[in-house]
Amino acid sequence: MQRLRPKIMTITAMAASLLPLLWAEGAGAEIMRRVAAPMLGGLLTSAFLTLEVLPVLYTIWRYRQLQRALSAGSSLELDTGLFR
């Protein structure tokens, strides 16, 4: 949750700066569109991965790790520092 606001602010600022390049007209506009479009796509893809996919993968990995520890009968040391 601590990384959500900075990530959203970064995405918004960068997208706001890239969108005018997509709609530009004049000398060099077609080259700038070819640069801005993949950058915007990569920005949105990285945001989705960072905010949606990676937390789910971490949760699955941590759940399996805890299940293995329980089945082995070892004492659990829960690292709850990430969820504060």
Task: Give a written overview of the molecule.
The chain is mostly helical. It has two helices and no strands. The N and C termini lie close together (9 Å). The model has no long low-confidence stretch (mean pLDDT 85).
Which helices and strands occur, and which strands form pairs?
Blueprint (H helix, E strand, L loop, with lengths): L3 H19 L6 H44 L12
Largest sheet: none
Low-confidence stretches: none
- Based on CA atoms alone, the radius of gyration comes out at 20 Å
Structural class: mainly alpha
Level of helix content? over 70%
- What is the strand content? under 5%
H/E element sequence: HH
What is the arithmetic mean of pLDDT?
A: 85
Question: What would the keywords be for this entry?
Answer:
84 residues, 0% strand, 75% helix, mainly alpha
Give a nutshell description of this structure.
With 84 residues, this protein is mainly α. 75% of the residues lie in helices and 0% in strands. The longest helix is centred in the middle third of the chain and has 44 residues.
